């Protein structure tokens, strides 16, 4: 038996993680495949679906991951993280929506499951390194001794927006073999490796919300937990406080949303703010969505360490948002800062992340708390 420590590959059943396992195996590395069982897809039948397309971590994905492992001839295990996933991802997701925020469960999953609990599992099989199919890059800054997180070579697939919570210890043990590749080359490599998932479509939706309807999921989760949804219903109001209509729950709305208001006015209206305390949904014009300054909390300063002076960086406030230049003003509390864009940006949304970039380097990131 080899004395070389194995690499634990997080295998989701998709083409990316399968290529990672195949690529490392072809390079002669000892590889062990691990699949994380995160959510019972048959739970909440109101919103569940037997179709596996468009989501990850389904039963079909577990089958695909096992088949790939058999094809490659590597050891493979399924690890049940359902309880931890519900505690650290699903419940905060529901609580944040009810609190008027728009959460990012994929970031929570990365922070508390995929790069935390998964590393503990890797320790259990003697793995010193883990590898995933994320599109991002890691390098060691020899001058500072810090590990840096960098954007991927394929800008259309870059996933650094969801990875800002990684610690130095996690970065030191993590491999992103696809970070320097573009998706088309990954697909071709899957074919060259003879992987049975080479033509499998990419997952698009959150694994526990298979139909993409977050509000319906929360309603179904409330029902399962014995919570009545009328505790979040209320009024739709304009900026003067005038009642324009009623709504079935604050969790049905997010900042910037236009559809589903069912309010007829002379101009298009958008959600400007959700107020869970009063259960009011504030609506206004598109111009009212433009904001320049906001507060960020729970910041993880990744690549440069905690700054003591204001710094310039590009800031991304949504996954599909084009990063915009801003000045970041650190607070005395090293995990807090105020961000001021050079040019106002649309729909700065509490609960989303703000991720800071200097060139290709991810400086840090944190949760958007409120506008200033």
Short description:
With 372 residues, the protein is α/β, with parallel strands linked by helices.
Note the main attributes of this structure.
7 helices, Rossmann fold, Elongation Factor Tu (Ef-tu), domain 3, 372 residues, alpha/beta, SH3 type barrels, five-stranded parallel β-sheet, 17 strands
What can you see in these coordinates?
This protein has 372 residues and is of the alpha/beta class. It has three domains: 7-133 and 177-192, Rossmann fold (3-Layer(aba) Sandwich), CATH 3.40.50; 229-284, Adenine nucleotide alpha hydrolases-like domains (SH3 type barrels); 290-371, Beta Barrel (Elongation Factor Tu (Ef-tu), domain 3), CATH 2.40.30.10. Helix content is 24%, strand content 28%. The strands form three sheets. A six-stranded antiparallel barrel has the order 12-15-14-13-16-17. Strands 3-2-1-4-7 form a five-stranded parallel β-sheet, with helices on both faces. The protein has a four-stranded mixed β-sheet with strand order 9-8-11-10, with no helix packed on it. Helix 1 (15-26) packs across helix 6 and helix 3 runs antiparallel to helix 4 (105-124). The protein starts with 6 loop residues before the first strand and ends with a strand. Residues 51-55 have low confidence and may be disordered.
